[in-house]
Here is the input.
Amino acid sequence: MEFQWYPGHMTKAKRQMQEDIKLIDLVIELVDARIPVSSRNPDIDELGRQKARLILLNKADLADDRVTAQWKDYFLGQGYFVVTLDARNRKSMKEITQVIMDACEKKMQRDRARGIKNRPIRAMVVGIPNVGKSTFINSYAGKACAKTGNKPGVTKGKQWIRLNKNVELLDTPGILWPKFEDQTVGLHLACIGSIKDELLLTEELAVELCKILSQRYPGALAQRYQIDEKTAEANILEQIAIQRNCRSKGNVLDYNKAALAVLDDFRSGALGKISLEFPEMAEKTTETDGMS
Ligand code: G4P
Here is the structure.
């Protein structure tokens, strides 16, 4: 399966981010908990060097809790601060301010040593499109989002959201693009719906997704569609189309409809809480200088 997707404004966005990052203390990076490797752009490690780093494993409500916990340990082990999140849920925000303070403890100590007291931490949200940046900013800032702008020392035109006495957030998130270093990245991004459908062959994608599901979550497809996963491997869409009565004109089986049903069910969580990437995969590819 071939993916080609090169947004033209990538360089401009990266330059903008380089500028914005100079203004902040902390990079809050959102990744999709179901595919934490493919939904990151590793350039952020270079851009965010010298800054405190917080990774939010977002959309955790759709991911496998056990695997998300493993990813949390994995990123903690790499020196990031990490919070598992459903950005739509305000209640998940409680933990974040404390973690932000912890992540910026060294900076606050430096400030204190220089006699600077109570300077708020400045943070910026970054992530690939559709990972939940705006949702997070809305939930986290909530009603408290008194905007502060054009203050001395702040680049003209930049808007900061004052969250509380300790934290200010740059109101526009930084957009990163995924890095298509191998086909798996494209496949996984397409599965979660982050690449536009017209760029893809829906049926091929659904078949690939079914393969991952049968391997990692045996029984999930069988339970949802009442099919025999073992015998269905070769003609999985046909079996789903039969069971779901996906038919087009002339009562012909419609594989495309079946494929869309599988993709929708996966994306909405109807197939269960499912992760497509696992820490052992990242470790393997890091060793061979691949995905990470
Ligand atoms: P972005 O700024 O990074 O591009 O992402 P955005 O916040 O627009 O979120 C993209 C989609 O993901 C939205 O759905 C949003 O509701 C959903 N979303 C964000 N965080 C979470 C989460 O933690 N869990 C789940 N399940 N969904 C999340 P949408 O369908 O595009 O819009 P809407 O119908 O929700 O308005």
In short: Strands lie at 26-32, 52-58, 81-84, 121-127, 146-149, 159-162, 167-170, 174-175, 247-248, 252-253. Residues 202-216 form the longest helix (15 residues). The chain has 13 helices and ten strands. Residues 149-155, 288-292 have pLDDT under 50 and may be disordered.
